Amino acid sequence: MTAPVKVEVVVVGSGASGSLIASRMAQAGKQTLILEAGPERGMRNLVSSQLWARRLKWGGSPVIEDGKQPIGYNFNAGWGVGGSAMHHYGVWPRLHEEDFDMKSRYGKGLDWPIGYDELRPHYDRVQKEVGVSGDAKAEVWRPAGDPYPMKPVPLFEQGRILARGFAALDMQTAPLPLAVTSEAYDGRAPCIWDGWCDAGCPIGALANPLATYLPRAEKAGAVLKANATVTRVLSDRAGKRALGVEYVTRDGTRIEQHADVVVLAAFTVQNPRLLLASGLANSSGRVGQYMMTHPAGLVYGMFDEYTENHMGATGGQLLCQDGYGKNKHSNKTAFGSYQWMIAPAVKPNDLLGFGTTRGDLFGAGLHDFMKQAARGFANMTAAVEDLPVASNRLVLSGKKDEHGVPLAHVTHTADEQTVALWEHALEEGQEVFKAAGAKTTWTGPMAAMHILGGTIMGDDPEQSVVNSYGQTHDIANLFIAGPGLFPSSGGVNPTFTVNALASRSSDYLLGEWGSIV
Amino acid sequence: MTLDRRTFVRDAGLGLLAFNVAGAVLMATPAQARKRRLPFQTLKPEEALTLEALGDVLVPGAKEAGLAHYVDQQLSGPHAESMLMIKYLGVPPPVYPFYAAASGAINRASRSRFEKAFTRLDDDEAVELVQTMSKENPAGWEGPPAPFFYFVLRSDALDVRYGTEKGFAELGIPYMAHIKPPSDW
Prior knowledge:
- The structure holds 2 protein chains of 2 kinds.
- Chain A is an alpha/beta fold.
- Chain A has helices at 16-27, 73-76, 102-106, 116-130, 157-168, 213-219, 267-278, 354-357, 364-376, 416-436, 495-511, 513-516, and strands at 7-12, 32-35, 63-66, 174-175, 223-225, 229-235, 242-248, 254-264, 292-302, 318-320, 338-342, 377-384, 394-400, 406-411, 440-443, 447-452, 478-480.
């Protein structure tokens, strides 16, 4: 065991939230160390291949999954510098006002300890720092906010064809807000719309941490250590003060890294796992509870027209949030919000490739389908709100990893209101495809998209793990960042909100530094 | 034959993978490895033959594309660097036992129904068995759930057959790589 020099801030994880917080800390002059469990990554490692893309997915300690709708950890989590944001699709809508007080408004789910107005300045700041393409006026559902700093993403044939279906049903569409450069931005090249987002974007058009906050953090003096797996949070005997973290290097050396402030930004599963394994910040008993995902509503169709489906971004081309009203669905069991991400670029293979959508086909029939799909396949995805349920939770397994840390065991079964909403979305999606002229339509199974909760924020220390800044109720100098803070999932992709929350946490941490340390 | 690092990097850039042959490293594409009958590093010969035979029923052309050598090579390296689809399907590493068990199960099911190994079935017999596998465990099946294994190997076969520059070209899809894969895959 060795003990290096104490730092002011140690950030565990180099993904979306960790990289932002580290950059803000370093820019404010704080001595900052980022510890990343996975390997080093550079732009040169981002190979354009759906096979090579799998190296960006989780490769650490196994996560045991359970329940009717498992969270799909290995697909959703990242591995290596940049974390999950390295393979995220850059779909960056904002949460809506009603997402923040569902319990008060509808008696369902949980309230956030903040409202949209408190987060709005950070959405605005981050979108300028990172660069988001979109058309704010066309997004008739969008809450108040600054216009996007870049023009909207272009439309290709698949998007035009599906937009026709929405229009026929009197539904609205708008350009999908994407953290992808539609034009040169802050030294980054414009996207060429080749659909390789999932494999990482080596030209820096997509806002992964290698293109955004990590260079800023390192330029300001932050130090990034890869292959450094944190095994526990160090604390005083009373468990009231964090002293730093213990981590293990690739050669097995254990190191105690002391710090004034500890920020856990290791994504939704590893953060509560570390807290539970360390026996810290759980006086509420809520650590690990309310694990959520966004059940994906996958709708497919085949058209006679050439859909040009290889073009665009993996996230899609258009957005529809007409289904955002939480209790306004024709299916009366359904509750919550959903949005359509319309016309994602697709590849032939991989979990989201068109070859996988017809699992019943094999042999010559599959080959014929592949040929047809290459020309006429179209698709869209609903991000469906997942109601927070306390029994959807992470606990420590009796099994341990190679470092002696208990494995995470995560159970997730969607509430019946969530399942009904997902079914409603699939029915609607197929109607859209038919209205657009699809000759056949079909749907995919419920798949987990994103992972949220487990270290939820709240005002009440008996009902939540952290306050609205991600500061644990129990330990003033221990912070959590990432989608694990969400008390409810909303019906939009979480990464923009993750960044906005991290921005807000950073301001608080720097502003209150004297009382925290 | 041994390779120095410079030669290794140059050959990898030409789409070649490193195969371990009698303690030496030989550079070849998986399709070449198959043609040259290079030995497998992890799969047993019967397992490899069964997997490529089944994979070729699922996705014609997968065998020639080197499915068995691809799976074998991915099983033989660190799990974190694996490119197999199974990596994100909830099967804890190591995943070789999964493939081995499934390979045994398909042969047991084949013998149960047709009294011969899967590799010796004629086309109609193989299709009949695979049709069942896609929906439920065939009679005599003992191993991971047959429909799940069907999905996994079908995905692997799609990867080698259509997930490459060559596969894209065959479908008329522009590959448009920012960075080309350093191997066929």
